[in-house]
Design a protein that fits this description.
single chain, 159 residues, 5-stranded mixed β-sheet, 7 strands
Length: 159
């Protein structure tokens, strides 16, 4: 960081209210406060150019089909349902503090200028090792960042 560069707070801004004239089909998807009850996936922050231990370059055709099906399944659930899913007695999908990521992931976040977005990233667990990482800022949008097929971003085993 240089000199007087000020960081913005690591909080989500309040979404704008939705018009009362919105289509009926959208009423169960978006509350009057503008928050999405079900996840909406954005690829605006995806890290397409990272080619290290994890990333989109590691995705096979079979992985892409599996992820597509997974996104459909998650999109049909509410955020509350997603956050309450468990596997082996542990929450299946949840945030992790960035400060506990591997050094390379922390550096990549800083290189991309994303170190002021949030103090944690949310991860979806697809299976034993595959993870989808991104930002959940509380408005129902999920900003996809990384595909991590081998659980390298947030290691749980000693290297």
């Amino acid at each position: 960081m240089t000199g007087d560069r000020r960081r913005s707070p690591k909080t989500a801004s309040a979404p704008l209210p939705i018009s009362p004239n919105r289509p009926r089909a959208l009423a169960p998807l978006v509350g009057n406060d503008g928050r999405h009850a079900r996840p909406v996936f954005s690829f605006a922050l995806v890290d397409r150019h990272y080619e290290g231990q994890w990333g989109w370059h590691r995705m096979s055709d079979a992985d892409a089909r599996r992820l597509h099906e997974f996104l459909w399944d998650m999109g049909a659930l509410t955020w509350d349902e997603i956050r309450h899913q468990t596997s082996g007695g542990h929450k299946k999908h949840h945030p992790h503090p960035i400060e506990r990521f591997c050094k390379e992931a922390q550096e990549r976040i800083a290189e991309r200028g994303h170190d002021d977005i949030a103090a944690s990233m949310f991860r979806f667990r697809l299976d034993g090792t595959a993870r989808l990482w991104g930002y959940d800022l509380g408005d129902g949008l999920f900003y996809v960042v990384w595909w991590d097929p081998d659980h390298k971003v947030y290691p749980t085993e000693p290297a």
